[in-house]
Design goal:
The protein is mostly helical. It is built from three helices and four strands. It has helices at 19-63, 100-150, 158-167; strands at 69-72, 78-81, 86-91, 94-98. The strands form two sheets. A two-stranded antiparallel ribbon has the order 1-2. A two-stranded antiparallel sheet has the order 3-4.
Length: 168
């Protein structure tokens, strides 16, 4: 049932003829997609916050002059000095000293990588939305069959009949 949309609802019942079980399986698939979508959206928010931080870093580096200036040591303490190098944190407790140009180049490269990740996560979100829609439609069709069966109405809906004739 995962990524497949069945035009003929009876296809759902080939493995398990119990309509309640089939509906619960379809519901579980939908809930799985909903959980996945939530995780994808959290990841997208995280990546966008990192991108904002990276843009602020690039702006600060770009505005950093090679001349003497004031540097904030704490909230109320400033020191006058000239930047000799920029220390870039690489992770895992590793700091590397770079020139302003090297640091700018490093962060521009990181920004490009981050933008690619955001594009990929956007594509993934679209895909999950599409699968959720297919899953909702499948659930609705199963539910409609369940209602028709419970009312003792065994004849097919006219639209479904037309679709099934197109398969033959």
């Amino acid at each position: 049932m995962d990524d497949v949309f069945h035009v003929n609802v009876s296809d759902y019942f080939k493995e398990d003829g119990n309509i309640e079980n089939v509906f619960e399986k379809a519901k579980a698939v939908y809930q799985g997609y909903a959980t996945g979508l939530e995780k994808v959206q959290e990841k997208r928010l995280y990546l966008h916050s990192r991108l904002g931080e990276l843009n602020r870093t690039l702006g600060a580096l770009d505005g950093l002059a090679d001349e003497e200036g004031l540097f904030s040591v704490s909230d109320s303490v400033f020191a006058r000095g000239r930047p000799r190098g920029i220390r870039v944190y690489l992770g895992a407790g590793v700091l590397v000293e770079k020139t302003k140009e090297e640091a700018l180049s490093f962060f521009v490269e990181k920004k490009g990588e981050l933008e690619k990740q955001i594009e990929e996560i956007d594509r993934l979100e679209e895909d999950v939305h599409r699968k959720m829609t297919m899953s909702k439609v499948s659930m609705a069709r199963i539910y409609n069959k369940k209602v028709r069966d419970s009312q003792g109405e065994k004849k097919e809906h006219p639209e479904t009949k037309e679709l099934n004739q197109g398969e033959a």
